[in-house]
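Title: Prediction job returns without error message
Component: structure pipeline
Severity: low
Priority: P3
Assignee: unassigned

Description:
Job completed but the reporter wants confirmation the result is attached to the right record. Sequence as submitted:
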Amino acid sequence: MIRRAQPWLGTLVDITVEGAPGHDVVTDAFIEIARLHRLMSFHDEASDIARINRAAPGELVQVDADTWQVLRLAREVTDLSGGAFDVACAPHLVERRILPAPWASATPERPAPRTSADVFALEDGWRVRKLAPGWIDVGGIAKGYAVDAAVASLESAGVAGGCVNAGGDLRVFGLMQAPVAVRSPAAPGRAARHIMLCGEAMATSASYFSERDHQSHRVSALLDARDGRPLVATASASVRAGRCVVADALTKVVLATGDCGHPALAAFGATAFLI
C-alpha cells in the first residue's frame, strides 16, 4: 500500500492506493489535482475563474474544458436547489473578507449579489459569456471535482483500489474499503459517526471552527446563496454519492435547507444525513 499527502485545494489531500504500482501513479494524480487547482482558484489571477471575474459584461472567455464542466454542474445544482447553492455568491464572501476582491476587475467595487444565470452563460467550445457584473467562486464544488479527477487518473493507470481524501471530501474506489469518522459539530475533536465507504464518495460541510468578526458576528465560508446568510449553526451535513463533485456541492444544499430529503439529492442518486 502507498500513501502520500500534499497541500492543495486549500486543504491537505491524502491519496492511498492498494498494491505496488509499477510507476508513480500517485504523483500523476497529484499533478492532475494541481492542474485543476490552478485552473479554478479564486486567488490566482491567471486562473479561469479570475479571468471570468475580471471580464466585462458581453465579453467571451475561453476556459479549460474542466472549468466549463464544473460551471455546468454548478448551474444544474443551482437550478435543482432553488438557488441554495450558487457559485455567484462570491460578493458575499468578499464583503466578509473571506475572499479578496478580484484583481483589476471590470467591476472595481463589489457588485450587487446576483444569480449565476444573471452573471454568465455557457457557450459551445468551452466558452463562458459574461452577462453582467459579478464574481464567481467554485470553492464549494471544485474540490470534489478534483478528487474525482484524481480517482480517474489512478483508475486509468490500472490501480486496483484506493482512496482520495481532500480534507473530508473523499472517494473510495475499486475493492478498497475505508473507514470514515465524521466530526461532532459541537465537539470537533470527537467523532459523532463512523462509516465504512466502498465504491462511493462522501463529503461533509460544517462551520466547525468559525470565527467572529469585529462586530462579534460569527462568520463562515459556508452560506445560503439565496440571501447570503452565513451558515454558522452547530450542525454538519454529509452527503454520499457516486461522485465526489456531487457530494461536495450537495452538502451546501442540505446545510442551507436542513432537508435530507431535498429533491436535488434524488436527482443525483445521493443520500444525506445531518448531525
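Comment from assignee: result matches the submitted record. The two ends are 33 Å apart (CA to CA).
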